[in-house]
Write a structure and sequence with these properties.
Elements: H1 11-28, H2 30-45, H3 47-62, H4 67-99, H5 103-118, H6 121-124, H7 127-143, H8 150-176, H9 192-222, H10 224-238, H11 244-253, H12 255-265, H13 275-281, H14 283-311, H15 317-358, E1 380-388, E2 398-406, E3 410-415, H16 421-428, E4 436-441, E5 444-445, H17 451-455, E6 458-461, H18 472-477, H19 484-493, H20 497-502, H21 524-538, E7 542-546, H22 554-567, E8 572-577, E9 588-593, E10 596-601, H23 603-608, H24 613-621
Parallel strand pairs: 3-8, 3-9, 6-7, 7-8
Antiparallel strand pairs: 1-2, 1-4, 4-5, 9-10
Helix pairs in contact: 1-2, 1-15, 2-4, 2-8, 3-4, 3-15, 7-10, 7-15, 8-15, 9-14, 9-15, 10-12, 14-15, 19-21
This protein binds adenosine-5'-diphosphate (ADP).
Adenosine-5'-diphosphate (ADP) binds next to α16.
């Protein structure tokens, strides 16, 4: 991926990106943001209480030496420090419970997950969407850039500002207290020009250190694109070992060897002779070292100035500790403010990439009509001259398809692989909108219905359905809470009853072993039955089976389809298959060829037409069902 244009990175742009990002996170997790920021301000300010109290105690020790007053001061310090520690612990607890540390990764990930779920299906399908997401993940996991670093940045901004302000408050008198006349030449320390010079040196050094550190950090941001590919290979290769779906192949073909070779052979950005190692030895290392050296210099200047003034009699010994500590703190606040500004500047590029993804528009029209919940389930769907091209494709996957189906009918959609059957279902479920023509539900274009409401009338079992490694009941109900009786009845209707009675924890049995040792491994055929049960449990008026049985032999498929047909009741069922025998029982069979409906009618009628596509396919497949 390339950097966005040559547009200059202005501070206004940096501010806009960071503000938008914090608002975004705040909208999703207000308590998490508040708990973290409040804790930050608290921990930035409270150390000054200690500094101030110690100064009072040391002052008394060095000056008045009044035992009673000392005892009072010490007691006061202890009580106030205990109170601070108590509140700190409470705030920390609150922060942890709202989401600190690793939990934040999960929260940020949720923002992306939500976007993906809200996205039009057509956008999910696009390669560009996946590319963007993968880049974001890499920036995030590789360098901690993007949204993930945002709260941390704002924490540093706040703690820097408050540390600086607290430090300055306790420091003002360092500059205003004057050296007495008796100090002779030391009186020069009172001269405004000298004070201005000291402040200037302090500011210059305070500024220089973080600027140098940011310069070092820029090498990561500037070269982010260069480690993208390595990161991808790294992620792929590091998890080679425990991905069950490839573990067997990896062993048999020793694919670990090409994995390892590819890791090393590429540009080697992470190798000891690679790009980043080079930077670390060269400019990046130099800037980091210079930054550290400069900050030590600063401490030297402070101590010199404070000690000279104390020596000359401007203030007592107690104040030396206070000033040395508070000036150092004020300076570290300012310094980290400058450094974090640099980091936020560097992060702007990554935030903008993130927004580019989050701003992917949903071009599909969203209607507001609700689908009438009819007791009689009397719905009618009509395809009216529908044609469709997949985005970016020049050929038609569907051509001029017209068809009507009424409630209660059994419809079969048959045809060779690639003839447009699945596309037909995807349009019916409005995963895509037709390129031409329209689809109507009870006479109204389906675009005018609220999408989720419209989807509620369909149950589809796709060819590549997915079950999760959660309890069986949750899989069937697609919900954490479920009606046990109904789950059992759906499973029985789908032919899973016998196996269910053998399961150790009944409907609470986990599928697969990912999340439970007692989980059961199920065969492909059993998985299909569970997927069928899920479609029955949803109890929607339309039920569609898109070759979920493709892994079975034709006879077994026909058997499942016929049995399923007996349990769907008054629902409208649509069966899809490239095997004609499976759909023989349907009232109406639509034959797809090259995206068009070339024939339609009952099996008996279609098979009579010896010139027709149906007859041709029937003949070709006859070997499977001579029984
Ligand atoms: P069937 O379900 O009958 O096997 P499909 O509906 O899956 O057929 O495919 C119809 C045509 O559309 C095929 O030529 C296929 O290559 C093409 N096609 C399917 N999915 C996509 C897609 N996501 N992008 C581009 N073309 C696709």
């Amino acid at each position: 991926m390339r950097r966005k244009g040559k547009k200059e990175l202005t501070w206004k742009r940096v501010y806009k990106a960071n503000q938008r990002a914090i608002k975004l996170i705040y909208t999703h997790y207000p308590k998490m943001v508040l708990s973290r920021l409040i804790y930050t301000v608290w921990t930035a300010l409270t150390p000054y209480v200690g500094i101030y109290c110690s100064a009072l105690i040391i002052g008394e020790l060095a000056g008045g030496k009044d035992a009673g007053k000392l005892a009072e001061l010490v007691l006061f310090t202890l009580i106030i420090e205990a109170a601070i520690a108590f509140v700190s612990a409470l705030l920390l607890k609150w922060q942890n419970s709202e989401g600190g540390g690793m939990y934040q990764y999960f929260q940020i990930q949720q923002i992306f997950t939500k976007k993906l779920l809200d996205m039009d299906f057509v956008k999910i399908d696009e390669e560009k969407t996946h590319e963007m997401l993968s880049s974001i993940e890499q920036y995030q996991n590789g360098g901690g850039w993007g949204l993930i670093s945002l709260i941390r940045c704002y924490e540093v901004v706040l703690s820097s500002v408050f540390t600086f302000l607290g430090g300055i408050t306790l420091t003002v008198s360092l500059f205003t207290s004057t050296v007495p006349e008796s100090a002779g030449a030391y009186q020069m320390l009172n001269h405004p020009l000298f004070i201005a010079l000291i402040i200037f040196v302090m500011l210059a050094v305070t500024w220089l250190s973080p600027v140098l550190a940011t310069k070092a950090g820029e090498y990561w941001a500037k070269n982010a694109d260069k480690h993208n590919q390595e990161n991808r290979i790294f992620r792929f290769y590091s998890f080679f070992g425990h991905r069950p779906e490839i573990a067997a192949d990896v062993r048999i073909y020793r694919q670990d060897l090409i994995g390892a070779k590819n890791m090393v052979l590429k540009t080697g950005v992470f190798e000891s002779k690679g790009l980043f190692a080079g930077y670390a030895r060269g400019p990046m290392g130099f800037y980091n070292a210079a930054s550290a050296a400069v900050s030590v210099l600063f401490t030297g200047v402070i101590y010199l100035f404070v000690c000279l003034k104390a020596w000359a009699g401007a203030f007592g010994i107690g104040s030396v500790t206070q000033y040395a500590a508070s000036v150092t703190k004020a300076a570290s606040g300012l310094s980290s403010l400058i450094e974090i500004a640099g980091t936020m500047r560097n992060n702007t590029f990554f935030l903008e990439k993130t927004f580019e993804f989050l701003d992917i528009p949903n071009p599909m029209y969203q209607g507001s009509l609700t689908v009438e919940k009819r007791r009689d389930r009397d719905y009618e769907v009509e395809f009216r001259s529908v044609s469709f091209q997949y985005p970016g494709s020049t050929s038609y996957a569907l051509k001029n398809v017209s068809m009507k189906f009424r409630i209660g009918e059994r419809l079969a959609v048959v045809g060779r692989n690639g003839s447009g059957k699945t596309t037909f279902i995807k349009l019916l479920c409005r995963l895509y909108d037709p390129t031409e023509g329209e689809i109507l539900l009870n006479g109204i274009n389906i675009r005018k219905y609220n999408y989720l409401d419209y989807l509620s009338i369909f149950s589809v079992v796709f060819q590549d359905f997915k079950l999760f490694s959660f309890p069986l009941g949750q899989n069937v109900a697609a919900s954490c809470s479920y009606d046990k009786e109904q789950v059992i009845s759906s499973l029985q209707k789908a032919g899973f009853g016998e196996r269910l009675s053998e399961l150790p924890d009944g409907t609470e049995t986990y599928l697969y072993k990912d999340f439970s040792e007692n989980g059961v491994d199920i065969s492909g055929g059993e998985a299909q039955k569970i997927a069928l049960a899920r479609s029955l449990y949803k109890d929607s008026p339309f039920i569609i089976l898109d070759e979920p049985t493709a892994a079975l032999d034709p006879v077994a498929e026909a058997d499942i389809y016929t049995r399923f047909n007996e349990v769907v009741g008054d629902k409208t069922a649509i069966y899809i298959s490239h095997r004609l025998s499976s759909c023989q029982f349907c009232d109406e069979i639509a034959v797809f060829d090259n995206g068009e409906i070339v024939q339609q009618g009952s099996h008996e009628k279609l098979v009579e037409d010896e010139e027709g596509k149906y007859y041709e396919l029937w003949r070709a497949q006859a070997q499977y069902y001579t029984e």
